[in-house]
Amino acid sequence: MQATSILARVLLPFLALLACQGAVVTPWTHKLRTNMLRESITLLQQLQHTQVSCNEMNVTDIFADNKQGDTMELLCKAATVAREGWSCHRQLEGIYFNLLGLLRGHRLEHQAPCPVAAGSTTSLRSFLKELHQVLQEQYKSQK
Coil, strand or helix: which one is 1? Predict the structure, then answer.
């Protein structure tokens, strides 16, 4: 009889948590996503004002043919480019991990960082500017 009582005390709260999981988890993940976007935007602003010689290094232009593409795929590819630029800007490591965090729960999470096909290139400075714009658009659409 006592085992049933303990089971009921554990099982009922567990079932209640499962029932309201969507209401609790969704606002938390939304806030986490918003914070990652905000932090990445701030880091990108700082990087754009940092003068280093490698700002002109060539990186794959992931934005060239993706004007109407999937934003999550674009962020996944941006993570790849950010990882390649760590040697230049150490803050790209933070952007890389934030981009992976933004992909969490998306189908591309397990592929990240996504492969980037060789193609046209752009400067790291231009890449950072365009990524900044994409993340600002994402941030505005979150609100």
Answer: coil
